[in-house]
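pinning this so it doesn't scroll away 📌
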Amino acid sequence: MEEKRSLVAVLRCDDYSEERVYGTMKKGIDLIGGMGMFARPSDHVLVKPNFLHSSDESRAVTTHPSVIRGMLRILQEEGYGDVMFGDSPAMGSCRGAANALGLTDGTYGARIADMSETVTYDFPEGNTARQFQFTREVTEADSIINLCKMKTHALERITGAVKNVYGFVCGQHKAAGHVRYPNDVVFAKMLTDIHRAVGPKLSIMDGITAMEGNGPSSGDPFDMKVMLFSADPVALDTVFCWLVDLDPALVPTNVQGEIAGIGRCTESMIDVVTLSDDGQEEHLTRGELFSRYGNAEFDVVRKGNVKSVLSLWSRIMNRVGRPVIDKSKCLKCGVCVEHCPVEGGAIHFENGKDRPPVYDYSRCIRCYCCQELCPAKAIRKR
């Protein structure tokens, strides 16, 4: 019997108007089986957006509030009465990030999750990680819906559905994870273990305005005008790669995700579905998908040997690449110094805050936490 392929729905969505986003989400979920395929109305549901940190929606750092509200509205209309939403940011609080986006308790009957209480979660079957420090809400949820953002990422090239689950780890433990899993491949393997432990039932990607360049927080907004829907997080991220003309095999979370069995990145095993202008269901080849929705001008690192996600090449590249500070942009705020996960720090101020901090590259593990959290977009990977 022929093996069933992973289904990914891709729909155009031109802007973040509430009704347009809601309508697109209804159609996308229906195309892959309907809400009942992913959760029961009696379930305790956790909707997990990307709240990297408190940020204005126009910067494309976080999942857009219209997407979050659209999901909560659909759940309320379909009779889901026990719904929470939230993420555990690396900096700041879940409530602070939600409030910055205009989201409050009671939005379509849902509650803002606290996401600050740590629960040790044992996972002896893990290939790389056998224990996690999750937020309490993750361990209590019956069904998790993953609302990821379409963005670039200094360590993994892109961040999407697979990477978004790192928000299950309580914020104060995130830095330690980068030390324990210090390169792109082993970090990707750890993310696949999270999926295997408590993986989301449904992933939806906000690609209406994506982030290109120096992502995941210091890049630039880029209008892709699409939303993606799938039960398979790896297939969804693979289709993201197709849309921006990036070889999916260069993305460690894709390759390691398929190896671990949480999804597929092999082209022949992915079925892309969309709707025609007259509302008819259409299945697209990779080429047809790119012709209709893709954009090769999206700024993402496309260079590299495919072996880099499978072998020593990854570690070599991590040693050659390094974070650097643009002194003209640096605010000397110390966020990078404060959040460096290396014991004793790999970045510090030499003589007070009169000058930008400096790196000790012999200690730097190339996790790019500094780049990810810099509020001034002053750090990038060289």
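📌 and the second one:
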Amino acid sequence: MVPSGLSAASRRELSLLLRDNPPLVTASLAASTLGLTPAAASRRLAAWSRSGWLARVRRGAYVPVPIESPSADVALEDPWPVAVTMFAPCYIGGWSAAEHWGLTEQIFRSVCVMTLKRPYDRRPVLRKVRFDLHTVAQSHLIGLKTVWRRGTRVQVSDPARTLVDMLTAPSLGGGIRHVAEMLTTLLREYPKETPKLLLYAEKLGIGAVYKRLGYLLQRDHAAAGSAELITACRQRMTAGYARLDPALPADRLVTAWRVWVPDSELREPAS
């Protein structure tokens, strides 16, 4: 749909609403900005959407359509600010944070969002962008950095917290093999982040992190100055057993780390 003409009054209202370049236009924003009732604001937004000036994301939420766009069927220009608006309190984590920090060159097709909400739909597609939503506890909002995206403050997990999240749930990094590669990158590119791995693991209280981290460090980095970190993981190791990657077969038990490891991930420790 090509945007249709607006009256002078409607054009002034729309310009006022979009003046600060909001990532998402909601009925509550329109009501407060234009001095309308919530119901009137919703009707106004719906009318602008029908005219092609706004594109509907979901009920009561829209994004502006660029003036140069040939149609209103637009993708999100930047999904991070939209995630903050739609799913707050939240932070960008997992593979999306790993991409941001340069921990991986892998291309992921969705945005990983860690949120306090418990959404019914955990993989919504909003304006051609898929979001993967993962629920976390309030106490887990640690190890976050603020970045600015289109004038919006967005929280993203720092490199060490990103790794700890992926060691907690390897699926957040695309599987343990990718997580192991990103751990290697972190140790090489962000050496000052290394002590935070244990700090965050301790604060989050997830024992499987020590088992997976210790195993990977001993397997891949025992000869690269990681002895102190390996010893710390062993000292903090909890009782019970964990899978190196819950999505993969549990072929062998590595008793030293109380971790079940697929045959494909069994290798001699670095020496």
